[in-house]
Design a protein that fits this description.
alpha+beta
């Protein structure tokens, strides 16, 4: 059996079966949860940007490579309702990498770190003859008197919400690959290059002291919802007429002949938050999040008993969906 047969998440499941741990939460969520200072849990996460996989040197300016490296980790901290604190960098680089390029990457990390109060405190450098590999470990914390916002917290009857407009980053990537930009689509371009981690919303959801299942949308709404369903042992129904297609994405897809719902369901790297809450909290959150943060939040479905994801069409017919998005190692074709 090869990794392409397992896929990324099959491999994670195998790794998870090998390693046991005594910490409050190990492999299986956005962050590991460890004992921390008095009154707090310690949060730990790691992410990578690999040349040729996550970025093309000719496509993404190095400043944005650095920003995205940290944003991917900040989004994991947001999905735990936490506060980011410290980062470590580990870079494997070819000898012929330009210092000007690397310096811009570091400047991108530093600007994003300063924006969110993160200190870069160490790391490692290594030589490689292959593509550049940029790793970042991010450490944070969350109060112990708050319930952990775990993927396994969803229950039948819960409402499913997502912040912002998933799918815009995928459209932005398509525009970036063309290397020409119509001015009216600059907002989509920016969503790909400069996504914002929803740390303030994660903190707000944690402060509710409610049973909330939370994950960030990095691999696509449908696939990331699948992680909540798997950990919670439940199913879900999404409402076709509630999928949040932004006016800008709708215009782009109409002009290009794309189905915008596919972008919403399977686009990745939006770094929005996808979460479930008991229904008695639903209307409150629909009011509070836009008022507090100037960010739209959309009620897109409900958690049900059973397993799998179904799309409820406008005529109430249920259509099964495959929780599919970005997946390292997956066999294609």
């Amino acid at each position: 059996m090869e990794l392409r047969d397992l896929g990324e998440f099959g491999l994670i499941a195998r790794i998870r079966s090998i390693f046991s741990s005594t910490v409050p939460l190990g492999i299986g969520d956005d962050c590991a949860v460890l004992p921390g200072r008095e009154g707090f849990w310690f949060l730990a996460t790691v992410d990578s940007q690999v040349e040729g996989v996550h970025f093309q040197v000719s496509l993404i300016p190095p400043f944005f490579v650095g920003r995205r490296l940290l944003v991917a980790n900040l989004s994991d901290i947001a999905a735990m309702g936490g506060i980011p604190r410290y980062a470590l960098l580990s870079f494997a680089l070819r000898e012929d990498v330009s210092f000007v390029w690397l310096n811009e990457v570091l400047q991108g990390v530093q600007e994003e770190a300063s924006r969110h109060g993160v200190e870069v405190v160490g790391g490692n450098l290594a030589r490689t003859d292959g593509p550049a590999v940029l790793d970042l470990v991010l450490l944070g914390e969350v109060e112990r008197d708050r319930p952990l916002l775990l993927r396994g917290n969803a229950r039948p009857g819960d409402w499913i919400f997502v912040t912002g407009y998933p799918g815009e980053a995928k459209a932005g990537l398509i525009l970036a690959e063309r290397k020409t930009l119509k001015e009216q689509y600059r907002g989509l371009w920016q969503r790909f290059f400069a996504a914002s981690p929803r740390l303030d919303v994660g903190r707000f959801l944690g402060a509710l002291r409610e049973r909330v299942a939370l994950i960030d949308v990095s691999d696509g709404l449908l696939q990331d919802l699948g992680h909540i369903l798997e950990e919670s042992h439940v199913g879900a129904i999404l409402y076709e007429d509630a999928l949040p297609v932004s006016p800008l994405l709708a215009q782009f897809c109409e002009e290009e002949g794309y189905d915008p719902r596919e972008f919403v369901l399977r686009g990745g790297e939006d770094f929005e938050l996808l979460f479930t809450v008991p229904p008695h909290r639903g209307e409150e959150l629909q009011r509070e999040i836009p008022q507090r943060f100037g960010l739209p939040v959309h009620w897109v479905g409900e958690i049900v008993q059973g397993e799998g994801v179904y799309l409820r069409k406008k005529d109430s017919i249920l259509v099964p969906l495959v929780p599919q998005g970005f997946n390292h190692f997956i066999r294609k074709g």
